[in-house]
Structure formats: structure tokens, C-alpha cells
TrEMBL record:
Matching CDD domains: HAD_sEH-N_like
Gene3D superfamilies, A to Z: HAD superfamily/HAD-like, Putative phosphatase, domain 2
InterPro entries for this protein: HAD-like_sf (IPR036412), HAD-SF_hydro_IA (IPR006439), HAD_sf (IPR023214), PGP-like_dom2 (IPR023198)
Domain of life, source organism: Bacteria
Designated name of the protein: Haloacid dehalogenase
One Pfam family matching this protein: Hydrolase
Length: 202
């Protein structure tokens, strides 16, 4: 069992929110991309970095994405698909956050963009449960770069080992661990619950 956490920090997509940019991308690529290539597109692509950092508009990204990956759809159609791939909060996510917020300050740390953040804010009912929200496109910092973890820790005002972080991308988990955080690789809400229970925090 790890040290008692003082703050719980959650990624959104793939952790609390049903976002799947991998399977639809595989279908659009018509077999040209393998699963790990599709996953790494969202980690390594310079255009994804620009989107996450708020350096390009979602429609500009959609046009670049379809061109770079030769997906055969126009920018407006791609933009619509990008919105649709963000399906909603996982069942039980709001209730889990409501429960945890009675015992811990909660924060969200998400590589995000204007298109998805607006949808999450309007439709998903998650953001009111967080004391702090750290969205990459608003901060102009993104995971797994060390600077965003340092910014979050400074804002939270706690020791690094007092932060427990949950993310579905191992690169982001490893970067958090390198900063001294307690970090857990969790894909989907059942794995989040299991990790919380294993630490005695739920």
C-alpha cells in the first residue's frame, strides 16, 4: 500500500470519460495503421501537440489529421467524427467523484482541446467535482512533458508523493512517477476503482 494521498488527480479521456480515438482511427485508415501506431499518433504527432497546446483550432487539426494519415474524409467530416468519438462520462464516474470529493480534494489533468473541453463542460457533469482543472490547451503545457506536472504540483501546494494520479497512457504515468508522484496506469473506470480500493482510498 502506498503513502496516504492528499490529492487525487485524474486524466479524463480513457479514465473517466469514454473517448476512443484508436478504434475509429483504425477503421478510417483501412488497415494501414496498427493499434499501437494509432495510439502513438495521439502521443507523438506534432499536430496533436499543437492541438493539445491550443496552438491550432480543432478544424485546422482535423484537416491536417486527415491529410497526414490519408483518411479520405474532408475537414468538416473529420471534425464531426472527432466530436463523436468523445461519447460521454463512463457510467458511475460522476458518482465516484462525488464520493471521493467528500474525503479528498480532486483535480483533473487532461491533454485536451477547445472542441472536447467545451463538450465535457456542457454535457458530462464531471468538472464541478474538481477543485482544480488543468487542461493542456488552456495552460499551453501538455503531458508527458515535465513542466505540466511541476505546474500542477506548485498549484496544488503539496509534496509530490502526496499526489495520486490516474492515467490511461503509460508514458504519462511514467512521467508523473519521474516527478515523484504516486501514479497508476488505469484504463477505464473499473481499473480506477480497483487501484483506489487497493490503496485503501475507496
Amino acid at each position: 500500500m502506498s503513502k496516504q494521498a492528499e490529492v487525487l488527480v485524474f486524466d479524463l479521456g480513457g479514465v473517466l470519460v469514454d473517448w476512443n480515438g484508436i478504434d475509429p482511427l483504425l477503421r478510417l485508415s483501412d488497415g494501414r495503421l496498427e493499434r499501437e501506431q494509432a495510439r502513438l499518433f495521439w502521443i507523438d504527432s506534432p499536430w496533436v501537440a499543437k492541438l493539445d497546446l491550443g496552438e491550432c483550432e480543432p478544424r485546422e487539426f482535423a484537416a491536417a489529421m486527415t491529410d497526414t494519415l490519408q483518411l479520405g474524409v474532408d475537414a468538416d467530416a473529420m471534425l464531426g467524427q472527432l466530436s463523436d468519438w468523445l461519447a460521454g462520462a463512463y457510467p458511475g464516474a460522476r458518482e465516484l467523484l462525488a464520493d471521493l470529493s467528500t474525503r479528498f480534494p480532486l483535480a483533473a489533468l487532461s491533454n485536451n482541446n477547445a472542441l472536447h473541453w467545451d463538450k465535457i463542460d456542457r454535457e458530462f457533469g464531471l468538472l464541478p467535482h474538481f477543485r482544480h482543472t488543468f487542461a493542456s490547451h488552456l495552460l499551453h503545457l501538455r503531458k508527458p512533458d515535465a513542466a505540466i506536472y511541476r505546474h500542477v504540483q506548485q498549484t496544488l501546494g503539496v509534496a509530490p508523493e502526496a499526489i495520486a494520479f490516474f492515467d490511461d497512457n503509460i508514458e504519462c504515468v511514467e512521467a508523473a512517477r519521474a516527478q515523484g508522484w504516486q501514479a497508476f496506469h488505469t484504463v477505464g473506470l473499473p481499473q480506477v476503482r480497483a487501484a483506489l480500493q487497493a490503496q485503501g482510498w475507496l
